[in-house]
Design a protein that fits this description.
mainly beta, 15% helix, eight-stranded antiparallel beta barrel
């Protein structure tokens, strides 16, 4: 639990501009794929707890964000920002995610938010929606 708290602190301070940033061409290969908030999210088709990371996009249950800017905000922490489109209603907004790979786990925060979630890699990916 302490490790997760420290990682959340690192993500929130990094996205708050506490460290210099470096542009990146895409999300790193080790972050690509489908991730679940827990084991059930990976296996239950009805779960809303999955996230799919691609080179320049992230698909969540409620929205898809296409990144026009990706940067390294700290060692191993990548942030993607760009236009997002909500699934229901098609509302467009500027959004993004910060991702920190931890092997078979990934810490996710949303810029401007103090909320952090840990996801695990899904062995057999299901669609996000």
């Amino acid at each position: 639990m302490l490790r997760l708290s420290l990682l959340a602190l690192a993500l929130t301070t990094a996205s708050a501009g506490a460290t210099p940033t470096v542009p990146a061409a895409a999300m790193p290969d080790e972050l690509h794929g489908t991730w679940g908030r827990d084991a059930e999210a990976c296996t239950d088709p009805a779960s809303r707890g999955r996230l799919r990371v691609e080179r320049r996009a992230a698909q969540m249950f409620h929205a898809t964000c296409t990144f026009d800017r990706i940067r390294i905000v700290a060692d191993g922490i990548f942030e993607g920002r760009g236009p997002c489109v909500e699934v229901r209603g098609g509302q467009r907004y500027r959004g993004g995610v910060s991702l920190m790979g931890l092997g078979d786990r990934m810490m996710v925060t949303f810029p401007g938010s103090q909320i952090a979630h840990t996801y695990q890699r899904c062995e057999r990916p299901l669609p996000v929606r």
